[in-house]
Specification:
Blueprint lengths: L13 H14 L3 H29 L8 H4 L2
Helix pairs in contact: 1-2
């Protein structure tokens, strides 16, 4: 039966392969499932970093600051 999920091939060094298999075994899930979960978490963390950098860049300069009361009147 065909799957709707995208398949990718990865070449892992032995240490990374060992660690991934150990984490998957500890969680009692297939290696591919654990790899997908870890990749999803990494992408979310990367997104957080990008948004934090964007926010930091917007906070620099001559921005007009408003108090909480001014915003929520």
């Amino acid at each position: 039966m065909p799957t709707t999920k995208q398949r990718i091939a990865l070449a892992l060094d032995p240490d990374l392969d060992f660690a991934l298999r150990a984490v998957a075994e500890r969680a009692n899930v297939p290696v591919a499932t654990k790899a997908a979960e870890l990749l999803r978490e990494a992408l979310e963390m990367h997104e957080d970093i990008v948004f934090a950098q964007l926010a930091d860049s917007r906070m620099k300069g001559k921005a007009k600051w408003l108090s909480h009361d001014q915003v929520w009147k």
